[in-house]
Design goal:
heterodimer; A: 260 residues; alpha+beta; five-stranded antiparallel β-sheet; 6 helices; 5 strands; 13% strand; elongated; B: 105 residues; mainly alpha; 3 helices; 0% strand; flat
Chain lengths: 260, 105
């Protein structure tokens, strides 16, 4: 039995079924990300003055990633447009670009995550704080080495004001006996990082999921073009709608997490 | 595809490119505006969100074709928007009850 309305439109909706399906799915996605944005707002307004981090993320890297995702959106729509104009070769080129850009996005995000997981805040027994990236942490050695700085007040770690005055970082050797607590900048370190990893992690999973579908349509799934080109074009449109939604979410995530 | 339809579609493709340039420009404006001290941080937040909304309109309107979509999709999205606004209203009402100074870590 054939699946109905894969190409022709349903008389009551005026749409082919997959299009209604993807929009219903995207509606549920709006609520999913909406709930997380809502959590972000509550966490942010609940933080005492000066304790919500600013400047913890690298703005140039975030900007590049935004440009990468926007570029992948235009290559996706151009891939679909190429099929509409019966240019299968161009479709292949544009969708290959989308895949490469998706991988670039995930690689850059992984680099950012790695940067956070090698970043440590060390509370010293004398009341000071050392903050920076781990250089040497041999469990057998009686000391750790970080590239960072000392601060007296923990509040100084929250507003880095990197745009105004860059902090001078140097290699600090700290004896283990002087350390009261040592913690990475993981999701457990601060509510900002918890919501940052949750939002960007969920978004990255969407990017990976979308890339798998686009990869399928670019590779083995593209055989359908020979037998049923209209149905294949519709599949590309549906995957494109999902991809644009992923871009749309990032358009809000970028300023919210990196800039404001 | 007829020659006329092909020409119409080429027109659409050109429009996608203009939207793409606008999105690139919008991203640079967002970053640039975040460096400008408007005096009040709330104003910086408002500017960033307004630009983000404009960019979202371009993506949804042109790349996702919402500018010229069927009524069924509009109905679905209005329904979603109502629920989304309800969610944000719940957030606002929770804000009034939110114990101050509780999120320190």
């Amino acid at each position: 039995m054939d699946i109905p309305y894969t190409v022709e439109t349903r008389p009551d909706t005026g749409l082919y079924n997959a299009k209604v399906g993807i929009w219903l799915f995207l509606a549920s996605e709006v609520m999913l990300f909406g709930a997380l944005f809502s959590s972000y707002i509550l966490l942010r307004v609940g933080a005492p003055e000066g304790y919500w981090p600013r400047g913890w993320l690298n703005v140039p890297i975030g900007t590049v990633n935004t440009l990468v995702l926007i570029t992948s959106s235009i290559t996706t729509v151009m891939a679909w447009a190429s099929l509409k104009m019966n240019q299968f070769g161009r479709f292949k080129v544009f969708h290959a670009c989308t895949l490469l850009l998706a991988m670039t996005f995930v690689c850059i995000k992984s680099y950012e995550y790695h940067d956070k997981f090698t970043h440590y805040e060390i509370t010293l027994k004398d009341g000071r704080f050392a903050d920076g990236h781990m250089v040497a942490n041999d469990p057998k050695a009686d000391h750790v080495v970080i590239s960072g700085r000392y601060v007296q007040d923990r509040k100084d770690l929250f507003d880095l004001e990197v745009r105004k005055a860059p902090h001078h970082h140097e290699e600090l050797t700290i004896r283990r006996s002087e350390i009261a607590k040592m913690e990475r900048y993981g999701p457990w370190h601060h509510t900002y990082l918890a919501i940052y990893f949750t939002l960007t992690g969920l978004h990255a999973l969407h990017v990976i999921g979308g890339a798998i579908v686009i990869g399928f349509l670019w590779g083995p799934g593209s055989k359908l073009w020979k037998t049923d080109p209209e149905r294949f074009t519709n599949r590309v449109e549906i995957s494109g709608l999902f991809w644009h939604f992923v871009d749309l979410v990032w358009i809000f995530l970028f300023p919210v997490l990196y800039l404001i | 595809m007829t020659a006329q339809a092909q020409e119409d579609f080429t027109h659409h493709v050109r429009r996608y490119l203009y939207v793409f340039y606008a999105l690139l420009f919008g991203t640079l404006i967002t970053v640039g505006a975040s460096y400008i001290p408007f005096g009040n941080h709330a104003f910086n937040i408002a500017v960033a969100l307004v630009i983000a909304c404009a960019k979202a309109f371009l993506v949804a309107g042109f790349f996702m074709h919402l500018i010229s979509e069927r009524k069924m999709i509009y109905g679905l999205l209005i329904f979603t928007a109502c629920f989304f606004l309800g969610l944000m209203f719940l957030t606002l009402s929770a804000y009034a009850d939110f114990p101050r100074m509780t999120v320190t870590h």
